[in-house]
């Protein structure tokens, strides 16, 4: 459960100022121009986003080489968070590390500004009331995550973490980087016993291991994205507990050699 809500609180203030409950139909360029911020997309070396605070105006840049428009939108919202939250930040670059929820959650105290900017971006792009209303009564799974991403025009990773921080779905999320588990987190409603898996490769029978062996290439599509696994694949069982079916769904990113794995009960 997050304790630092400075970013999301500021985003709620901004939404109140502009009088919108949801900005999914507003371009980031139009949103920023309303605050006299210059927005540009151009190729950036070794960074996804950049903020330059001048004497009278702020310039925000997003790397035009980013393939996903949803990812560009999240990067832009992150930089906008820096603008409103961190007045002393005059020149700053963001990359896959500073924008990664899973890295920031683990080292939140050392990356407080980045955590706050991500928290701002999540709330401004996926306002809690609209978010909860959209997913109400919908079954959890890969299609829901994709539908949320399309509906709110933001990245799959930000959708997953939004589900976690709002504790909406009983799910276990694992972030795997360079072949080992870097971070994991579960919703409070998911009653499982998690063994010590940090800094270890994913379990042999896991879907994550399949993607690792496939060099991060997509091996499942459509309805098969959610594969049935045994509960014991990721969790410890007590002596009186049956090994029931769970689902596992993975999002590999070959460029960064990462895998996000979601596990939930069937």
Automatic annotation (TrEMBL):
Keyword Membrane included in the entry's annotation: yes
The keyword Electron transport appears for this protein: no
Domain of life according to the entry: Bacteria
Keywords linked to the UniProt accession: Membrane, Transmembrane, Transmembrane helix
Alphabetical list of Pfam families matching this protein: Peptidase_M78
Residues of the IrrE N-terminal-like domain: 41-163
Transmembrane segments: 159-181
Name this protein carries in UniProt: ImmA/IrrE family metallo-endopeptidase
Organism taxonomic ancestry: Bacteria, Pseudomonadati, Bacteroidota, Flavobacteriia, Flavobacteriales
């Amino acid at each position: 459960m997050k304790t630092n809500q400075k970013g999301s609180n500021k985003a709620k203030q901004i939404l109140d100022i502009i009088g919108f409950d949801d900005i999914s139909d507003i371009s980031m360029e139009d949103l920023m121009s309303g605050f006299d911020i210059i927005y540009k997309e151009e190729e950036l070396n070794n960074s996804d986003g950049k903020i330059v605070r001048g004497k009278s105006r702020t310039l925000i840049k997003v790397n035009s080489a980013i393939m996903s428009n949803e990812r560009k939108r999240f990067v832009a919202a992150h930089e906008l968070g820096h603008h409103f939250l961190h007045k002393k930040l005059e020149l700053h670059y963001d990359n896959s590390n500073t924008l990664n929820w899973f890295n920031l959650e683990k080292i939140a105290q050392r990356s407080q500004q980045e955590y706050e900017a991500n928290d701002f971006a999540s709330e401004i792009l996926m306002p809690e009331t609209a978010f909860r209303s959209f997913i109400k009564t919908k079954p959890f799974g890969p299609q829901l995550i994709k539908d949320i991403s399309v509906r709110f025009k933001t990245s799959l990773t930000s959708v997953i973490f939004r589900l976690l921080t709002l504790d909406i779905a009983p799910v276990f999320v694992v972030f795997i980087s360079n072949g080992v588990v870097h971070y994991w987190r579960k919703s409070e409603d998911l009653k499982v016993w998690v063994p010590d898996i940090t800094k270890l490769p994913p379990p042999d029978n896991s879907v994550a291991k399949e993607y690792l062996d496939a060099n991060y290439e997509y091996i499942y599509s459509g309805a098969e994205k959610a594969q049935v696994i045994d509960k014991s694949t990721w969790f410890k069982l007590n002596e009186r507990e049956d090994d029931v079916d769970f689902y596992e769904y993975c999002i590999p990113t070959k460029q960064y050699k990462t895998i996000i794995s979601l596990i939930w009960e069937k």
